[in-house]
Amino acid sequence: MTYTLNSGIKGTISLSTKQIQDWIESYRVGSKYVTTVGKEHFGLNPELVADFKVHNEFSEQREHVAAIQPTVASKASEQLSEAYSQYKALIQVECKCGASYIEESAYKRNKWGCKECGDIVFLDSKKGMVDTEKGKAWYLTNRYFVER
């Protein structure tokens, strides 16, 4: 549960279902609420609480969101990743720092940043595409001068 005091200070505490029910009853009646969480005692005066939100694994709202959200989100992200993966370009990077690796990009690029040192590597259009273990890839390097 997260609560906000009238002073604007926010606090969070993990409560069980029974403790949440007890808190809501104390809030309705206006009586001070005291409980034990682990080895700590926790007290809250409802007169000083501006608002609160229950957001733990025991709340019904969380159960509905957890049941609905993953299926919708996963379908949408699956469609998106499928659409992008159709047009991905492989990039073979060889940097003067000694790094040599293959990256995936959403599209063909003229320059790229080396993930090891951060230097810029450029597309060698004369060399074109090179064979790699993942398939054909565009060759980007800064080991020698590349015409742009």
Explain the overall architecture.
This protein is α+β, with helices and mostly antiparallel strands and 148 residues long. 27% of the residues lie in helices and 35% in strands. It has 2 helices and 11 strands. Strands 6, 7, 8, 9, 10 and 11 form a 6-stranded mixed beta sheet that branches. The protein has a 3-stranded antiparallel beta sheet with strand order 2-1-5, with no helix packed on it. A two-stranded antiparallel sheet has the order 3-4. The radius of gyration is 28 Å and the shape is elongated.
List SSEs in N-to-C order: EEHEEEHEEEEEE
Largest beta-sheet details: 6 strands, mixed
What is the strand tally?
Answer: 11
β-strand percent reads 35-45%
Q: Helical residue percent?
A: 25-40%
Produce a short descriptive summary.
The protein has helices spanning 17-29, 60-86, and strands spanning 2-5, 10-12, 33-37, 40-44, 49-53, 89-94, 100-105, 111-113, 120-123, 129-132, 135-141. By secondary structure, it is an alpha+beta fold.
Task: From the structure above, extract its key features.
3-stranded antiparallel β-sheet; alpha+beta; 11 strands; 35% strand; 148 residues; elongated
